[in-house]
């Protein structure tokens, strides 16, 4: 083989071409690409997106190609190396399949790049698609990538974990689009010069979800869907005209990824504060349109204008407090940095903001070399008891805020032995015990070396000095130094850490970390997980899915740059896998007492088998390494009869912040169920929440989210006709 790189892609060939059966050499009447040498006039140029990591262009000399929808000899035009020609499908079909036989086995295929027909109109564009791989042309398994590409004529890319394959298939679906046909000017395939050893005991990566935007912010919805958004443009945050945001939604039950531009709230929602308030409404504040507030009603899929903040902010943090209101502080990246960005609070019932002049921002500033406009960014905030907020970082100085009256701030001491840790992360993995884990970061926002520092913080009553300990055995912290990474608490109480780099520089993809880690609280240790092949650094994020997997995505949003990632990847933690890589049997929630409970209330859950533990994890919203919504509450279970178990929600709303929570049950092996989402409200009292945005109450409810994968496979069959 002759890859178009200065180094060789090494592929194992057993027996040579003559040893392969004749049907395999010419599957489905494929058209042979007769080239004496692969010297295409067109080679993909990744000027506005991140190229396949360590990817080499696979030589096409021995390729054969088949299309299920073409005219005469059109199919081979998709791989002829000439971007002035293109394959055109038939008009009467809605599912279009192109299959490439690479001619030799055991390439470590890692990406597919597709150039649409280079036409003046917008015809022939492939948006809805999936990519599958096979070693024999018959067994395809699950897609390695799927989703929705942008509806425009530029180069499209699907990247995924390197996988041994000889056959590559791209399926396009035109249903629900304005396309009557699709075309491909050039289809290019990439492979890595290495295989990544797979060990199911370390988890597994894939599939990749392709979005029509560069997703830099993400939020859970109570339905199980995921909302993501970028800025005024799908791939660019600067030079904003303001007033709009590109958005997508992923529906795991059907696999569909939507695309739209939100203009309802006249808000460019790049670099905002994000919080899900006590009613279940997503509150997005500031950013490029620095005074704006947007409210997302996920039930109606509707954006609602909120009241403008009292101060213009960008890169601020916000957090939901014990009565369901939203506190925000900092944010000098936009709206000016000459005045301190002290706190203010949003009331969902009154739909109003109130300044908190006593909630001073200065105590939480880092000593950033670039000054205040960087020093008050991305606070690690945790709503706590009695209208208090604990600020764990990123400054090495910690503080207690109180949002009653005019607000107050009280020093909480240093994060002992740590330094300022901008663009690090922090997560409350056990709210009952007040346990917070902080991870990595760097002293300055940019041009600064990351650390592997990890601290275990235990908070008690408001304004008490917390206990700070070094996390990691023998004080070692994480295995890797990280900044711009992301963190998720899992149902079993472990903490997943992914991505990042050792030297913080926005829109740079050097010195990256590709091996995630898992923190075990029971023995205060970190382990390394399954290495992946997709870079996640600046503007990346992770979020927990209701099926107990993690969605890890984003990065970039810099226009014509090579750091844009239009995708996300699913990580399956080890607790869902057997030693052979197959899915473990998992417990199933049959019904719950109600999908609307209040703090201190007793509830019950009925399962299909014995379970030994349970946990609540609050729905998250995240951007720029911050997710102040997520927290976990371990739930002791009391067996009532059969497979019916009772639990009691903690009575303090500062522990159980009002809003939507995912209820997981786990078996004796620690394997979690698919979650049932429950809205938790506060009772009558000083922390009483403002009102219920979504009434999902009742006496007994069957789960609305059981398992997305069977439905996804069925939906693929409907989409693509197989």
UniProtKB/TrEMBL annotation:
Q: Out of the domains of life, which is the source?
A: Eukaryota
Q: Where is the F5/8 type C domain?
A: 80-192
Q: Does the keyword Signal apply?
A: yes
Protein's name according to its UniProt entry: F5/8 type C domain-containing protein
GO process annotations (BP): polysaccharide catabolic process
Which SMART domains does the UniProt entry name for this protein?
Kelch
In terms of SUPFAM superfamilies, this protein maps to:
E set domains, Galactose oxidase, central domain, Galactose-binding domain-like
Give the InterPro entries listed for this entry: FA58C (IPR000421), Gal_Oxase/kelch_b-propeller (IPR011043), Gal_Oxidase_central_sf (IPR037293), Galactose-bd-like_sf (IPR008979), Glyoxal_oxidase_N (IPR009880), GO-like_E_set (IPR015202), Ig-like_fold (IPR013783), Ig_E-set (IPR014756)
Q: Which UniProt keywords apply?
A: Carbohydrate metabolism, Polysaccharide degradation, Signal
Asked if Signal is a keyword of the record, the answer is: yes
């Amino acid at each position: 083989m002759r890859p178009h790189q200065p180094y060789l892609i090494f592929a194992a060939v057993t027996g040579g071409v003559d040893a392969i059966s004749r049907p395999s050499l010419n599957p489905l009447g494929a058209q042979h690409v007769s080239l004496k040498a692969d010297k295409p006039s067109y080679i993909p140029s990744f000027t506005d997106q991140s190229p396949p990591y360590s990817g080499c262009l696979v030589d096409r000399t021995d390729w054969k190609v088949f299309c299920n929808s073409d005219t005469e000899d059109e199919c081979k035009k998709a791989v002829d190396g000439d971007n002035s020609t293109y394959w055109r499908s038939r008009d009467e079909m809605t599912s279009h399949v192109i299959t490439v036989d690479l001619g030799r086995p055991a390439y470590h295929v890692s990406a597919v790049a597709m150039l649409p027909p280079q036409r003046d109109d917008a015809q022939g564009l492939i948006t809805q698609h999936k990519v599958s791989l096979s070693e024999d042309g018959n067994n395809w398994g699950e897609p390695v990538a799927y989703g929705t590409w942008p509806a425009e004529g530029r180069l499209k890319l699907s990247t995924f974990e390197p996988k041994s394959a000889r056959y590559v298939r791209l399926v396009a679906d035109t249903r629900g689009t304005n396309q009557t046909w699709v075309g491909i000017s050039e289809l290019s395939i990439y492979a890595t010069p290495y295989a990544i050893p797979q060990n199911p005991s370390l988890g597994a990566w894939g599939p990749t979800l392709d979005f029509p935007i560069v997703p830099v912010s993400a939020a859970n919805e109570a339905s199980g869907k995921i909302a993501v958004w970028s800025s005024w443009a799908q791939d660019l945050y600067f030079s904003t005209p303001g007033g709009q945001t590109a958005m997508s939604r992923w529906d795991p039950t059907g696999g569909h990824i939507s695309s739209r531009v939100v203009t309802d709230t006249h808000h460019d929602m790049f670099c905002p504060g994000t919080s899900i308030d006590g009613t279940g409404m997503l509150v997005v504040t500031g950013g490029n349109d620095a005074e704006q507030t947007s409210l997302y009603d996920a039930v109606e899929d509707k954006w609602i204008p909120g009241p403008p903040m009292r101060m213009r902010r960008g890169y601020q943090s916000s957090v939901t407090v014990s009565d369901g209101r939203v506190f925000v502080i900092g944010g000098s990246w936009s709206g000016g940095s000459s005045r301190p960005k002290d706190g203010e609070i949003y009331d969902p019932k009154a739909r109003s903001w109130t300044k908190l002049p006593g909630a001073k921002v200065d105590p939480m500033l880092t000593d950033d070399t670039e000054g205040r406009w960087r020093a008050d960014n991305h606070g690690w905030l945790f709503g706590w008891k009695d209208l208090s907020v604990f600020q764990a970082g990123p400054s090495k100085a910690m503080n207690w805020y109180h949002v009653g009256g005019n607000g107050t701030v009280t020093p909480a001491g240093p994060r002992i032995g740590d330094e300022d840790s901008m663009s690090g992360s922090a997560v409350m993995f056990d709210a009952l015990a007040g346990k917070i884990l902080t991870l990595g970061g760097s002293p300055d926002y940019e041009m600064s070396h990351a650390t592997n520092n990890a601290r275990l913080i235990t908070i008690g009553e408001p304004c008490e000095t917390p206990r700070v300990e070094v996390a990691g055995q023998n004080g070692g912290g994480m295995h890797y130094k990280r900044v711009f990474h992301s963190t998720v608490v899992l149902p079993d109480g472990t903490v997943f850490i992914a991505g990042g780099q050792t030297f913080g520089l926005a829109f740079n993809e050097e010195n990256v970390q590709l091996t995630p880690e898992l923190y075990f609280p029971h023995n205060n240790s970190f382990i390394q997980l399954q290495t992946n092949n997709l870079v996640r650094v600046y503007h990346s994020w992770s979020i927990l899915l209701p099926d107990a997997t993690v969605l890890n995505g984003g990065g970039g949003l810099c226009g014509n740059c090579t750091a844009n990632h239009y995708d996300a990847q699913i990580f399956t933690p080890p607790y869902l896998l057997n030693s052979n890589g197959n899915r473990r049997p998992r417990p199933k929630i049959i019904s719950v007492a109600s999908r609307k409970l209040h703090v201190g209330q007793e509830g019950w859950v009925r399962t299909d088998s014995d379970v030994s533990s349970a946990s609540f994890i609050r729905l998250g919203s995240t951007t720029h390494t911050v997710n102040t919504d997520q927290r976990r509450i371990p739930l002791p279970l009391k067996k009532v009869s059969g497979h019916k178990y009772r639990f009691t929600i903690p009575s303090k709303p500062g522990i159980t912040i009002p809003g939507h929570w995912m209820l997981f049950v786990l078996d004796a092996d620690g394997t979690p169920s698919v979650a049932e989402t429950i809205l938790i409200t506060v009772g009558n009292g000083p922390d009483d929440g403002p009102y219920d945005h979504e009434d999902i109450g009742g006496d007994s409810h069957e789960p609305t989210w059981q398992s997305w994968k069977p439905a996804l496979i069925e939906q693929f069959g409907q989409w693509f006709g197989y």
